[in-house]
Amino acid sequence: MAKKKRTYNPNLIKTRHSYNLSEITQIYGIDIRTAYSWRKRGLKAIDENNRPYLFWGEEIRRFLDEKSKTKKHTLKPGEFFCTKCHAPRRSLNNKISIENTDRSLGKKSKQVYLKGICNVCGQTLYLFYSDKKLEQLLASGLIVKEHDTYLYGSGYSSVNIQLEKVNINEAKYQE
What we know:
14% of the residues are buried. This protein has helices at 21-28, 32-40, 57-69, 131-140; strands spanning 18-20, 54-56, 80-82, 87-89, 97-105, 109-117, 124-130, 149-152, 164-167. The chain starts with 17 loop residues before the first strand and ends in an 8-residue tail after the last strand. By secondary structure, the protein is an alpha+beta fold. A 3-stranded antiparallel β-sheet has the order 5-6-7. InterPro entries: DNA-bd_dom_put_sf. It comes from Candidatus Zymogenus saltonus. This is DNA-binding protein.
C-alpha cells in the first residue's frame, strides 16, 4: 500500500505552549512513531536529557513550516509539474494543446488549460493559466503550441481533392 502524504496545519499549535509527543499525536492524528521520527528529523525538544520530551509550540510550527516548504516546487515560465517525475518539467516541443475554459479570472482575463507531454517520462502534463500570461509566453517563445488546424479529406474520392481546413475543437470524426 502506498504511503499517504499529509500536510499538517501549524496553526493548531499555540506558540507559547509546551507539548509532549502524545499531545502532538492527538492534535494531528498521527502515530507515536511518526512523532518520534519528526524528533529525529529536526524537531528539537526543550531538554533532550529529560523524558517525556517537551517541545515549544513555536518549535513545532517552525518544523512543520520547513517540512511543507520542502514539498513545494516553483515553476519557471513554460514549465509544468510532472506527477510521475515529482519535478518541474518542460513539455515536448510542439506537443502543447491549449483550451479555453471560458472562466473569468478577474475583470479582464480568462482561464486557459494547457496540456503537454513530459520530455523525460512521457506523462501527460496539465496546467491552468491566464490568457494574458499565455500570450506573453507565446510571444517570448517559451511555449510552442501544437497546430490547431488539420487537413481532412473525403475517403470516397480516389484523388482526394476535397480537402478542407478544420479546427480541431470543431472537428468530428467521419466514417
